User: What shape does this take?
Amino acid sequence: MKEAKERTVSPSVPGRPKLTKKQNFLQAVKFTLFSISAGAIQIISSTICKEGFHWPPMACYITGLVLSVLWNFTFNRKFTFKSANNVPLAMLKVAGYYAVFSPLSTWWVGALTRIGWNYYLVQIGTMLINFVTEFLFDRFVVFGKSINTNALGKKEQQKLLEESKNR
Assistant: This one.
């Protein structure tokens, strides 16, 4: 009879839990869904700034960006990466990412709209670039060593461990 292959759920690198393919897939799905909701917040708030208050495109963009970052960070920390790490430290890392991304993206939003590109198309393209780079940064830098350390994550890892013992 063929031996069942035991699933590894213990850390493969100190401080980093080894995730199953399903866990990695679900992380990507959750991050995508939370990012879509954050994108909606960004678009709605920047549209209100642009159409309602008639602010310049760069001011509208940065306002929407800040609101969406706060939303995305809060939900992804708790439900996607299930991290119990130091919130101020994690937010500082995210702030570091945005210290680079925000000036660059604010600059290109202004530059591209000044030469006639459609503001909303520029914003959507910028959001797609942000989506990919922020997922990678959050996954490997911000939460990489603290994935599944909150109550939800510990419960999930314990369940996987029990399942692997029962095989």
User: Anything to note?
Assistant: The chain has one domain: 19-165. The first strand starts at residue 11 and ends at 13. The first helix runs from residue 21 to 52. The two ends are 13 Å apart (CA to CA).
